[in-house]
């Protein structure tokens, strides 16, 4: 088809009438093809491989890239952001505690830019709210996802969507990871892995121990009935999906089908229009690693300042059950911390985790799993992995003072320093 014929065709489509409604004007962009894009088998060498592009993963990747590490992030879905974007919990928190900000860095940078670009509002962190959720920051989930991609690109991070590891093997001082997606088999040779899958799926593939209770917290399917979604300015409606399990594709499928079926029942019962529906259930709980350090609920509620603390956390003990949730607020002045050892699977080399799979008991994890805390973990893991790769060592051998200095350079608030 000639250029003139293509132009005529576009003009015809734009002027056509379909079902009595004119088709709106269409803009165009062209995706630049990368070398070898049509090949099904790829081999790639990187310093840091981040598996999982959710709340912790995209921050870990951006930090590793900014620290100079050649970084690749693998994500089974179609966008970054995880719970914030795909799950629709677009009010990440908590970045503050007791009248001051305690978590900043790359996660806060991304949230702040998203709110500012969207014309949103910030809570007053200098004011201690009556209820913890009153200091949540609302973000536009759609804008957040593409801003995260932009920051990855600016940091030199490569993104691979619709892929997931199939096998992991030791290779010299690092790893060889085979990832698969439709039409793609990617062999990645890397020095360090950061598992940000939520359920420590890579850790499980390696045969390292993980923890999970028989009953897990319900997931949430988020939607809007009767009124349009106003992203970045309000919360969505939600319903519990009991038994929601994110540990494999079959259980995720079941959770999604169950959630959507329940939404359809509400539409028929309430006779309201379905105005918005998230593509996936938001999951609260899955596997946790057995780390070099285990954060207990006493550590968490007492605000223990670990010797190797690399990030702060703040949220009530927040265990959801079939009868609902009754958050247990922390005592005034309490700010929990996250040690580096809780991000390293026990006995492992060149491997870290970040996010809700952090080494912790169940009650501590119910507070640690929230987004701001996971962002802080992600930044700490990304920075530590990049230093370990550069020094040809394993994360726990990187000097803690160096980790702290570099985190501060990248805007993080160090535990005990807020």
In short:
The chain is of the alpha+beta class and 418 residues long. The protein has ten helices and 20 strands. It is globular, with a radius of gyration of 22 Å.
What does this structure look like?
- Strands 3, 4, 7, 8, 9, 10 and 20 form a 7-stranded mixed β-sheet that branches. The protein has a 3-stranded antiparallel β-sheet with strand order 13-12-14, covered by helices on one side.
- It folds into 2 domains: 41-95 and 142-213 and 286-409, FAD/NAD(P)-binding domain; 219-277, no CATH class.
- It is globular, with a radius of gyration of 22 Å.
- Helix content is 29%, strand content 22%.
- A hairpin with a 2-residue loop joins β5 and β6 (100-101).
- It contains 10 helices and 20 strands.
- Residues 12-20 have low confidence and may be disordered.
- The longest helix is centred in the middle third of the chain and has 22 residues, at 249-270.
- The protein is α+β, with helices and mostly antiparallel strands.
